[in-house]
Specification:
Number of helices: 4
Oligomer: single chain
Structural class: alpha/beta
Largest sheet: 6 strands, mixed
Strand order of the largest sheet: 1-5-4-9-3-10
Helix content: 10-25%
Distance between the termini: 12 Å
Radius of gyration: 16 Å
C-alpha cells in the first residue's frame, strides 16, 4: 500500500501542489473562527451516468450551456462548486482553495451543526451511486485525503462522510458503489 502513496502538499492558503488548478468564482469566505473539521465525499456526472464530458467543469466554472442536454434545464442559474473533482482517470482538479467555503453541501447538518459548507471540504468523484469507482480514483482520493488530514487535523477518519450522511433523504451520494471499508481502512493503515 505504501508504494502507491504519493506525497501531496497543501499550502497555508489551502491550495494543493501538483494538481490542476481551475479557480472558479463559486465560493466565499468561511465564517470567522470556523474550524475546518469535516470531509464530504460526493459524486457527479453530467449528463447523469456519462463520464469524461466537459460539463462538470463547465458547471463548477459557471459556464455550462443549459441547452446542451435536456437534463440540464434544472441547472440554469445554479452556482455550485466543490473544492476538488476527481475524474475517472484519477486526475484531480481543484476549483476552490480548502481555506475558502465551496458551495457543495447545500442544506445540510452534521452532529447537530447545520450549514456544513461552513466547516467542511467537498470532494466530488466522477461517478454515480451504482457505478463502481475506478482504482485510480481511490488512489487519488486516498492521497488527497491524507494531505487534507495533515493540513486540517480536526478531519479524522471519523469525520469523513458522504453527502448522504449530511443531507439524508435529499442526497444519496457517493452511493452504494463507494467502498467505504477499503477507503477508511487504507487511511488508517497509512497512519
Amino acid at each position: 500500500i505504501r508504494d502507491s502513496i504519493k506525497i501531496m502538499q497543501i499550502d497555508s492558503s489551502g491550495v494543493a501542489a501538483n494538481i490542476t488548478q481551475r479557480p472558479c468564482t463559486h465560493f466565499d469566505e468561511r465564517p470567522e473562527n470556523t474550524d475546518i473539521s469535516l470531509l464530504v465525499i460526493h459524486n457527479i456526472s453530467l449528463p447523469a451516468g456519462q463520464f469524461g464530458t466537459e460539463y462538470v467543469d463547465a458547471l463548477f466554472m459557471g459556464e455550462i450551456d443549459c441547452n446542451a442536454h435536456p437534463s440540464f434545464c434544472d441547472l440554469n442559474g445554479l452556482r455550485v462548486s466543490a473544492h476538488c473533482f476527481i475524474k475517472r482517470t484519477g486526475e484531480i482538479i481543484q476549483y476552490v482553495p480548502f481555506n475558502k467555503r465551496a458551495w457543495h453541501a447545500g442544506q445540510s447538518e452534521y452532529e447537530g451543526q447545520s450549514a456544513c459548507n461552513n466547516f467542511s471540504i467537498g470532494i466530488e468523484l466522477e461517478g454515480t451511486d451504482t457505478t463502481p469507482y475506478t482504482q485510480a480514483q481511490y488512489t487519488s482520493l486516498h492521497n488527497l485525503t491524507k494531505a487534507i488530514m495533515t493540513r486540517y487535523p480536526l478531519i479524522t477518519t471519523k469525520r469523513v462522510v458522504g453527502h448522504c450522511d449530511i443531507a439524508p433523504g435529499r442526497k444519496t451520494d457517493p452511493g452504494e458503489s463507494f467502498n467505504w471499508p477499503a477507503y477508511i481502512s487504507r487511511l488508517e493503515q497509512a497512519n
